[in-house]
């Protein structure tokens, strides 16, 4: 059973930075598709960034140029570096993971989720 545990959330002022980490209990050897999601109060869950098995990344438009998703395969850890934070980035952030399909393609569904870490950005 793959387990994910986020850390690194906190409260910062607008313009500040945070780095979220997601520790994965199972050895992945880089073969997992991984992502960061967030849910703000009163809003639906939103995909923030993804990273595939080859290291390819995608970002939602609202964080492009400010957030960077990365992974350290040796440490089985996923990261989200968040710079130039804005009050609208305030949300619970979750990491997610799953194996690619039989063609090696990462899909948009994830079966493994962490418990979340809160990020609060004040103006």
Summarize this entry quickly.
Helix content is 0%, strand content 48%.
- What Rg do the Cα atoms give? 14 Å
How many angstroms separate the termini?
A: 40 Å
The profile of the biggest β sheet is:
7 strands, mixed
Strand content: over 45%
Number of beta-strand segments: 11
Shape: globular
Give the ordered list of helices and strands.
EEEEEEEEEEE
> Which structural class is indicated by helix and strand composition?
mainly beta
Number of helices: 0
Low confidence ranges: none
Helix content: under 10%
Mean pLDDT: 94
Q: Key terms for this structure?
A:
single chain; 123 residues; mainly beta; 7-stranded mixed β-sheet; 4-stranded antiparallel β-sheet; 48% strand
Walkthrough of the structure:
The chain has strands at 4-7, 10-13, 18-24, 33-39, 46-51, 57-59, 67-72, 77-82, 91-98, 112-113, 117-122. With 123 residues, it is mainly beta. The strands form 2 sheets. Strands 2, 4, 5, 6, 9, 10 and 11 form a 7-stranded mixed beta sheet that branches. It has a 4-stranded antiparallel beta sheet with strand order 1-3-8-7, with no helix packed on it. It is globular and about 45 Å long. The chain starts with a strand and ends with a strand. The model has no long low-confidence stretch (mean pLDDT 94).
């Amino acid at each position: 059973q793959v387990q994910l545990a986020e850390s690194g959330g906190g409260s910062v002022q607008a313009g500040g930075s945070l780095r979220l980490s997601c520790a994965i209990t199972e050895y992945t050897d880089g073969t997992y598709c991984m992502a960061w999601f967030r849910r703000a109060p009163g809003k639906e869950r939103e995909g923030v960034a993804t990273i595939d098995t080859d290291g390819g990344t995608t970002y939602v438009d609202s964080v492009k140029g400010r957030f960077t998703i990365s992974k350290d395969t040796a440490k089985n850890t996923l990261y989200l570096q968040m710079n130039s934070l804005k009050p609208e980035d305030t949300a619970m952030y979750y990491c997610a993971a799953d194996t690619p399909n039989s063609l090696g393609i990462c899909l948009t569904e994830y079966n493994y989720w962490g418990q979340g870490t809160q990020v609060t950005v004040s103006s």
